Write the structure tokens for this entry.
Amino acid sequence: MPFDTPSSTTERPHVVIVGAGFAGLEAAKTLRDTPVRVTLVDRNNYHKFQPLLYEVAMAGLEPDDIAHNVRNIFQGNETVHFRLGTVTDVDPVRQQVHLRGSAPLSYDHLILAAGAVSTDFGIPGVEEHAYPLKNVPDAVNLRNRVLRQFERYDRQREAAGEGALTFVIVGGGPTGVEMAGALVELFDTLNDDFAEFDTREQARCILLEMEDYLLPPYERSLQTYTQRVLEGRGVDVRTGTAVERVDTDRVHLQESPPIPTQTLVWAAGVKASPVAGMVGTEQARDGRIVVNPDLSIPEHPTVYAVGDMAAIEGKDGYEPQLAQVAIQSGRHAATQIQRDLRNGTRESFEYWDLGQMATIGRNAAVAELGGGVSFKGVFAWFLWVVIHIAKLVGFRNRLSALVNWAYNYFTYNRSARLILDMVPIADDVPMEVEEVDQQVKERLKTVETQPR
Ligand SMILES: Cc1cc2nc3c(=O)[nH]c(=O)nc-3n(C[C@H](O)[C@H](O)[C@H](O)COP(=O)(O)OP(=O)(O)OC[C@H]3O[C@@H](n4cnc5c(N)ncnc54)[C@H](O)[C@@H]3O)c2cc1C
């Protein structure tokens, strides 16, 4: 039976899930033994573990340590089928999802789980000059940039220009903190690679945060600990500092002198995927779809929005855009479909807060668990490592990440120091496979002719 046809009364209902991230994948897993047909659509053929993108960007892990082929996850399962495709429109009245370059998918139930994209908050120059970190090509692109800056500096110091080895990270949330901690570790590793200069003296990592403290949602003692550790490891932490605009070779701040830099990493915020705007329903300020308590969309009870693209009312405003919220909401939407099939009543979603954690680098992390328990230091770091390995999808990924981390830990190395040119593809630019291929060819041609 073709998977893109609507179901007649005798067929199994067709569930379309858009996005194979944390939310979409969990929804598909929940439905895999349910009498339905599931089509799981994603623009990539892999699920990526976003919390570890920074490790790829900072040469600690390889892309295939943190990404897993979706078809492989559902191999042998007759219910869930994967479709590689980019969603370009959603028609909740005709119950159809439009894909670039192929026939629309008709559905009986729809789960929208397309996640979020970076936002520049309208700050001039960010889109053109900053390096985002939202997907695997972003991470590899940033890794290339960092490594290439050292090569440039090594080759010709004067020509490399001012700020060639000044790396500015904007956003003192978990991503910015984790990246800053890993970047100064990379400076240490590179010191053995470059005999002509001391990378620890020449390279600088500056972390900018608009609020007065790093890790804004964490408790104060963990915030101050984080700042102290980062500063002790050589990061120049500047809180209460807002970016005004970004140029090719400097970042301009609102109340202090500009910083010369050729590499600005944007870890300052996200907004909902453009897919959220395709449904024509109420959106919150950051573009997230405002959902009913059962996570369905107002006026369309068979359409759900989950994860980063859903504005889910919680105790203190909308629930945060975190992996656990995505997993639990994806599972909840799938469970409501199962309830509908059994003619049961639907339930409201309640987020079970398991806490949050962030690593600052080797032997240092902060953790806040549910019930007000918090801790920091080596034990928090060990817990962070164990949890992240356990949460990776697939045994091979877990084993490979464990081996790489153990190797890096004992050798003080960051072993994935490869410059691999790829095309960074923005999450909000829907492209077909052929277009991507074409872009790759064009970009590789440019890269090959560029002086390095
Ligand atoms: C760098 C970084 C670090 C993070 N660190 C943490 C952390 O330490 N802890 C934590 O809890 N959370 C962290 N998060 C947040 C966490 O990753 C997200 O909350 C979570 O991934 C949301 O899951 P999701 O399924 O809603 O979206 P995603 O995981 O983003 O998945 C969305 C999927 O939809 C697909 N998609 C998008 N648009 C289309 C389209 N038009 N057509 C087809 N497919 C499409 C994408 O390819 C993607 O696979 C981090 C996020 C980032 C970016």
